[in-house]
Amino acid sequence: MVSQVDGSMIVVSNRLPLVVEKIGDEWQIGPAAGGLVTALEPVMRRVNGLWIGWPGSAAKAAPYAELFERFAEQHGYRLAGVPLTEEDVELYYQGFSNETIWPLFHDLLGRTKFELATWQRYQQVNEKFAVAIVDQLLDDQLIWVHDYQLALVGAQLRALGVRNRLAYFLHIPFPSFDLFRRLPWKKKMLDGLLQYDLLGFQTLRDRRNFVASVRELYPQVTADIRRRVTYLDFGNRQVTVGNFPISIDFEEFNQGARQQQVADEAWYLHEHYQGRQLFLGVDRLDYTKGISKRLLAFERALEKYPDLCRQATLIQVVVPSRAQVPEYISLKEELDRLVGRINARFSEHGWVPIHYLYRSLDRTQLLAHYRSCEIALISPLRDGMNLVAKEFCAASIEENGVLILSEFAGASAQLGQHALLVNPFDIEGTADTIWQAFSMDEEERRQRMRQLRSEVRRNNVDRWVEQFMIAVRPQLEDLY
Ligand code: GDG
Questions:
Q1: What is the pTM of this model?
Q2: Residues framing ligand 1 (Cβ under 6 A)
């Protein structure tokens, strides 16, 4: 299906998906690992696409023009950078994106800051992105903008006279109108979003929330709701709104987990933990991921179900993230304290309840953890999708893993039937579910995991791109 999309495509995201590093005197450039890159690379290569974004500030001195050229030769699609100043990063990225939209859209009103200066800079930086796009624009390209940092790029492009097809995908949730209405600039934000021709959300709930906000603020709009998409009709133009659950490359994890190196590492993990059942949490350091509440639930489970002591261990991996934002610094301190307290309370000779790693794992280690941990404990307070849940299933090749999943993760819409769902705010209930997972018999585990794996296999990341492109296409025909 994707191959039917002809002509070029421009993908725009806050960060260019790059790893740039200096090895000796030589600069090296390569694509960053991650779901979005895996999903988009094939189609970008096929249409000789262009990816536009901020290269990051880590390697300012890098000779980008030369590196981008080399990248295009090696990978078959092109890159263009949008340079940002330190003030841009502070106000647009750390400020409005991460201290206003991020908490508000994750239903955490109490953590949301509303500051005029960050909002103004957000608009200016979105305009900067739009100008960078116009510099590269040829006729008839589809422009596909990603995520909450760039909601207004479409509107800025229209203001610059761009008439190309514009599509947008929001990777995080869209909140209910009761929350969204708190944003002092809500109308501007919606006006901006509605300049895209296609708006994609992760789940049906997000799509409905968005449509409900539009109906509140534009009473004249008519909405034609179909199974896959809603058409919003504004008289002079139509906007398509759909839900497209993002996914992973199932085979990459399924095959990756079978590699010898991974098997060796997994064997080592089991030896190290002496046959105990292993619970696994893998998250970026972020208050939306519900790590503190998860630790409290694990503590409560140890208290309530003493058979867990010595027989279960929680491996919690926390990947450093947004290290300059004060909220994240205090979260890190809170986690350090909690782990220290729980371990001090329950540890015995030869057994520590929580193994806490504050760093990222390399690919082999990550796969080995997925493969060898019996139970994934994924309990975000709110999450757009949560790819870790899908990766765990795809890498669970022994088919005996149990997935405990928050009902507030987007992934629960697809995986909820065969996972054990929890409300992460309910410590007691989560503790009971921890025990239920621990004591689940082999047959039930297999039955559930088989279903989960077939769900992830069927709805993998190619399907995500394909569905999105199919939704773009009617407009392609209508407009040209
Ligand atoms: C946003 C939305 C949505 C994690 N630790 C390590 C590691 N990871 C990789 C995982 C996974 C990715 O990071 C995390 O993805 P998530 O989906 O769980 O979460 P966000 O980063 O918050 O992503 C989210 C997503 O966008 C996509 O639309 O699902 O809801 O918030 O791929 O594997 N990778 C390695 N070592 C680690 O230690 N190598």
A1: 0.94
A2: 35, 171-172, 246, 282, 284, 317, 319, 360-361, 363, 366, 383-388, 391
